[in-house]
Design a protein that fits this description.
The protein is mainly alpha-helical. The chain is 43% helix and 4% strand.
Length: 442
Amino acid sequence: MTEPGGRDGYVSPDGLTRAERQLYRTSVLVLAASEDKTYRGAYVASPTMPWVWGTGLEKPSGVYHKVWSRDLYEIATALIADGDRAGAERALTYLFTRQQKPNGSFPQNSNLDGSEHWNNLQLDEVAFPVVLAWQLQRFDDATYRDHVKPAADFVVANGPWTPQERWENQSGYSPATIASEIAGLVCAADIARRNGDAASATRYETVADDWQKRVEGWTATQNGPYAPHPYYLRLTKDGKPNSGTAYAIGDSGPNAVDQRKVVDPSYLELVRLGVKPADDPAIRNTVQVVDQQLGVATPNGMFWHRFNFDGYGEKKDGSDWDIGFPPNPTEIWSNNTTIGRIWPIFAGERGEYEVATRQPSAAASRLASMARAGGEGHMISEQVWDQFPPSGSPGFPKGEPTLSASPLAWSHAQFVRLAWSIDAGRPVERPSIVACRYAGCG
């Protein structure tokens, strides 16, 4: 919720259509079913293993069966919105007592028992548990001393540059990651002050304020090819958004692309987390650029690609994404034969932005799009078919689930959270303490 606390018990939002209400109930059940029953609070990314992940790339269980701090945050904020505070509390307890490392960081993902699986570092996954602790009012001394402070100290020492951003295949200055870092530090400062640690509180706020002022300069280009005004990039490798630094896209994308040509809807984290006001000029500019570059209209509504040149999806003929086994590094990063399709979660994130900009009808249309994307089985997938071949052919209808993970817990969590944001008239995820500092308390 925006304020610490929340409702008790199951309550569904008002104003849902029959189809949306059915998908809402299904979404709540999907989230509940995604929690491991031995290691409580361990909500997996998906019960499925799409493509090569289910055919031996990882044995005995692929990475969609692992626990990711970021996905767990998305799920927990949906649980809070739904009134399942106990589920969210279990998620946070799992993060702090099973996943968190002695240095305060969190693994890229973990096995159900909390042991590290993949071993890279994503700083949004370090910051989000701190935000969740604030949202759940975990203000006690032990939580601050043993968990919040080590995580915040780690962010200060290692940010804002991150070894990996939310899509896990790039390092650099990511507006989405930096938004989570800033939000985490402001929440940590409040918890620190409640525990009498004024010095740490001041340090966290000072760093957060500095990064908030500099994030546009690090990640929004003024001379990119898509618009004559500043727009946010997916990331910059060097904190220099006006330079033509090239990088390999990853996940079967091309090897060398000018960073000014790669945009991503994830910059809206800046608004959802209260780091930038919704009417910020660079934010508004980027909405138009992202729609033009990544948006795809389908019979089920508008959905968006993750970023330009994304290769994480089926091959051009609709067959499985398959990097080969054993993996061939050249094929993984540069075969250019696969296409990342469009993601329902972006309709939800866009809807939350439209709630913040007082466009309830537009936000409601995004909720309807997500509901239609669930199909007859009411399962929202990771991706749906776009305009590329074979989309539109028999068996590949635009806007319907691809062969990606279905259901994806994050997708269902996003639907639940958007439904409650529309009901509340504000993004329910947004921590008010961050928004009041940077974006206004209204």
